[in-house]
Amino acid sequence: MDWSGYRKFVTVSLAIVSALVSQQRSVEAAEGSRAGTARVAITPQKPTWMAGYGSRTKPSEGAIHDLWAKALVLEDESGRKAALVTLDLCGIGRELSLKIRARLKSDLGIERDHVVLSCSHTHSGPVVGDNLIGMYPMDEAQRQVVAEYANFLADSIVDVTTRAAKNLAPAKLAWGTGRADFAVNRRSNKEPDVPELRDRLGLEGPVDHDVPVLRVQGASDKTLAVVFGYACHCTVLSLNQFCGDYAGFAQLAIEKNNPGAQAMFVAGCGADQNPLPRRTVELAQGYGERLAAAVQPVLDSAMEPVLTPLKASYSEIDLGFGTMPTRAEIEEEAKSKTLAIANRAKAMLQTLDAKGQLPASYPYPVQAWRLGELTWIFLGGEVVVDYSLRIKRNLGSSHTWVSSYCNDVCAYIPSLRVLKEGGYEGATSMIYYGQPTIWSEKVEDDIIDAVNRAAKTVEPAH
């Protein structure tokens, strides 16, 4: 018997069957599923204080390119809608986030567990509301500009999501993962040493170089949206001009490569990851183009179809703080010549006077979506890379996407390892977010427990 011929026959037959199954799954994914997109520029139209770097001493001076709010609204066969809104911003706080999500529920009927507000964490965006406002020496006129921008942003997000919902049309989704290697663990590698360390294979510390990609296609398989992520700080630039940083340049490159598509960046757990080297527009654009180059092969390959319905979970856990400072310690900090320290202390004294005590915990948001085989986790705050690595290691890296900077950028979120090591991500960053002290040593366990509950909640029924 001609075994080589038989093996060839079997191989070809299996390939044909696989293609037919894949094609059928794509058809199933499209049936009953709808998607709509919309965008709006959110670049401040007047000089505004910029968020991210405490060294800035004056408001913005123009823009390198526009900042955007982009909405993707999905609807499954049951008619339930979900909205992902990506923002070229350093962060938004809890109060504004709750206000926006309440309006989306009221206006569009989209429940809070089906809404994600995702910030790219560009350090070349404006201060938004009270998020990080204690870092800067603003006068009352400048504070008013910041407050007006927050109102403009809320209106813009509601409007762009409403327009995306009006644009709903039959669609199919698919997802895959690429790789990009420019993120460097900034706690383990000194910035000036990175080129030499990389040259001799000496870089240290955990990283997550996955580039998850979600593609949304409409009629005639036209790409409507490309959602992608990466775990790295948007800190290439420190100029006084608005810019989406490398994530903004990546979106521009993806949209150039895929005419008519809306590119949307969702940041990963990159709180301890930096793009190194940095500090020039050319480097920011170069990193963006490298990230776009990691996305394109995924789009050009056979991606995994995403089947509906979409399942969602949202909770806020009481994330505990560590040992609280005494009133005497706070009063001493209020005399500090460091603006952020003094401003935090004054705010804590006001809380003590009004309520008699400081809050023992923070309402920390944990969210999960299930799209077919894909489990997508959304975490608040600036989350270090240990979380994404741990979550994917346990839930399965081939079908898990972990995002942070979502819904409430409230503080840095260290793992227990980073908390014990201390430093900026583990301790001193809490000053700039106005939090009263560091997190308790239960921080990682409490968040992982909440993630586990959320992931189980969105598991399909068997």
Automatic annotation (TrEMBL):
Q: Name one GO molecular function term.
A: metal ion binding
Q: What Pfam families does the annotation carry? A: Ceramidase_alk (PF04734)
Cofactor binding note from Swiss-Prot or TrEMBL: Binds 1 zinc ion per subunit.
Zinc as UniProt keyword: yes
**What InterPro entries has UniProt attached to this entry?**
Ceramidase_alk, NEUT/ALK_ceramidase_N
Give its E.C. classification number. Answer: 3.5.1.23
Q: State the needed cofactors, names only.
A: Zn(2+)
Residue ranges crossing the lipid bilayer per the database entry:
none
**What GO terms describe the biological role, i.e. biological process, of this protein?**
ceramide catabolic process; long-chain fatty acid biosynthetic process; sphingosine biosynthetic process
Record keyword Hydrolase present: yes
Domain Neutral/alkaline non-lysosomal ceramidase N-terminal per the UniProt entry, residue ranges: 45-268
- Which Gene Ontology cellular component terms are annotated? extracellular region; membrane
What enzyme class is recorded for this protein?
A: hydrolase
Kindly state which keywords UniProt assigns to this record, in alphabetical order: Hydrolase, Lipid metabolism, Metal-binding, Sphingolipid metabolism, Zinc
**Ligand binding (Zn(2+)):** H121, H233
Give the highest taxon in the source lineage.
Answer: Bacteria
User: Which reaction is this enzyme known to catalyze?
Assistant: an N-acylsphing-4-enine + H2O = sphing-4-enine + a fatty acid
- Signal peptide boundaries: none
Regarding protein family, the annotation reads:
Belongs to the neutral ceramidase family.
Protein name in the entry: Neutral ceramidase
Please tell me the species this chain comes from: Singulisphaera acidiphila (strain ATCC BAA-1392 / DSM 18658 / VKM B-2454 / MOB10)
